Amino acid sequence: MQKSKFKIKVKGDKVIWMVFLLLIIISAMEVYSTIGKTVYERQGGSPIMMFAKHIFILFLGTCVMYAVHHIKYTYFSRFAKIGLFVSFILLILTLILGSFGDKAAARWLTIPLIGQFQPSEIVKIILIIYVARVLALYQDNIKSMEVFKKLMIPICLICMLIFPENFSTATILFLICFFMMYIGRINNKYLILIVIVGVIAVISIFALLKANPDLLSRGGTWVNRIEEYISDDKTAITQSNQAEMAIATGGFFGKFLGHTTQARFLSESHNDFIYAIIIEEGGMLLGIVIIALYLILLYRGIQVARRSKGYFGAFCAIGLIIMIVFQAMINMFVATGITPVTGQTLPFVSYGGTSFLFSCIALGIVLSISASANKDQAKEKLEKDITEEDSVDLTSEENKSKEENQSENNFETKEQNN
Length: 418
Description:
Its EC number is 2.4.99.28. This is peptidoglycan glycosyltransferase. It is found in: Membrane. The structure is a single chain. With about 425 residues, the protein is mainly alpha-helical. It has one domain. It is about 70% helix and about 5% strand. The chain has a three-stranded antiparallel sheet, covered by helices on one side. Strand 2 and strand 3 form a beta hairpin. About 40% of the residues are buried.
């Protein structure tokens, strides 16, 4: 009887895979627990259908991540420029044609036969890949104004297009790109200039919106959130207050799964405020475990970047893993009242299609970089063993294999020649 040749081959950092699986298991449990309260009791929908959809999205995202991690990560750099162009088109179309969701923000595009998706999610990944590519290509001339302009012009344009309807995403993306430029050795005087201009811009925008909230469609919402956050009057019952109540009643061990009482008072208990419900049901113990999982993800991502032989892989890994973990931290800060409400989801845990799928793509690229680094290290070890034990030269076939699979030491030259 002939055996099936189908085999699932998992590559890359195994710890990252384990963290991902633990997070989606927690996601399935907590979304199941909260959906009945938020959908059935308040919106009259079907919690079973909504949960089934979430399970399908978790499965689809896992398959997408598995497929992406089998693609050699250097291929993504080849599409950075065209991806940037497509990003501009998508964001402009979103501002013009975008559907308004529950939060009255035009963040969604509707594609026939596919449905709605949030362009800013894929744009984040494309911009990070582009920044990593430029930093890798121009390391020999990284301090120049020319390289700085190649980075700042698209970064500013992308963030400005996201900004009117999604201030928090634009800010987070800009900060990630700034950090990438910092570790990429961009001239410090340019980075200081960015900080000065950025602070002035934020203060000026807040002042303008406070004077005229209708200047932007979301202007009044931003001002109200910030003023509520800094206000001494805490008597108003806001979403943040409800989240804090959920956390306070959870204690250390929690009320256990399905015993949430605050979910019905949180309009986004299965999404933006899911971390508060996690603590209510699982206690501070599970809340600390969630934080630890994201910190492990950050640590392993940094290790992947350090082990990458080329600049592009290192910058890409660090940018994408920070994107995921920083968003997670912002979500948890909002749930615990540390920062104003932002609308950021908890990666791999919150209910939602677009955010989860593109987070899976980002993590898949990181795993691809890890797999390539593992392969390079295995080849180096094999070559060392052959040299030490047999004292013979590598055969022509092995030399050819080495050249085909070597890291990106000459990445810059190859890309510039193309």
